């Protein structure tokens, strides 16, 4: 328990230092660019209440239409941060959204992400496939199926 508290305090301190240091700004994700209203009305936030894959797909389509699509991740106590995330998000016009220890069912997340994968493929070409995080839920399976089709 002590190590978990120490880890949490360390992450919190690092985050606060990164946010308050005027000389250097560390950007972990573009998600901070969204207003509370945009984030709270997004499909990513609403997925926890979704039980059908078709509903999750509709949420993804609405997020794409509003210009705020997400690629969804699952995690644990602390988010996994990759240094290239902000560049990827900017280049491909998406936001990474990581659910913590609890989140929607895996099938719901996969259904949402599948729509976003198809959107990226149709609007950005194939280069995103080599650059996206491997831990995006459902990506490896989608990629295998994509390779079989093409």
Provide structural commentary.
This protein is mostly helical. It has one domain (27-149). The chain is built from eight helices and two strands, in the order H-H-H-H-E-H-E-H-H-H. The protein has helices spanning 2-20, 36-40, 43-46, 53-66, 85-92, 106-124, 127-131, 139-149, and strands at residues 70-74, 95-99. It has a two-stranded parallel ribbon. Strand 1 (70-74), helix 5 and strand 2 (95-99) form a beta-alpha-beta unit. Helix 4 packs parallel to helix 6 (106-124). The relative contact order is 0.14.
Short summary:
It is built from 8 helices and 2 strands; from the N terminus they run H-H-H-H-E-H-E-H-H-H.
Q: What is the rounded distance between the termini?
A: 49 Å
Indicate the radius of gyration in whole angstroms. 16 Å
Total helical segments: 8
Strand content: 5-15%
Classify the helix fraction into a percent range: 55-70%
- For the largest sheet, list the strands in their spatial order: 1-2
Order of helices and strands: HHHHEHEHHH
**What is the structural class?**
mainly alpha
The count of DSSP E runs of length 2 or more, i.e. the number of strands, is: 2
Largest sheet: 2 strands, parallel
């Amino acid at each position: 328990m002590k190590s978990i508290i120490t880890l949490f305090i360390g992450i919190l301190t690092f985050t606060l230092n990164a946010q308050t240091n005027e000389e250097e700004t560390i950007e972990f994700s573009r998600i901070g660019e969204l207003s509370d209203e945009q984030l709270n009305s997004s499909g990513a936030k609403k997925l926890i209440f979704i039980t059908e894959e078709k509903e999750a797909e509709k949420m993804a389509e609405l997020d794409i239409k509003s210009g705020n699509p997400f690629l969804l991740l699952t995690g644990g106590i602390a988010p996994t941060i990759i240094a290239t995330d902000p560049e990827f998000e900017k280049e491909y016009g998406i936001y990474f959204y990581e659910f913590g220890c609890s989140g929607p069912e895996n099938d719901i997340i996969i259904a949402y992400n599948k729509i976003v994968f198809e959107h990226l493929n149709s609007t950005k070409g194939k280069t995103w496939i080599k650059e996206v995080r491997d831990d995006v839920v459902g990506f490896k399976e989608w990629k295998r199926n994509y390779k079989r089709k093409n």
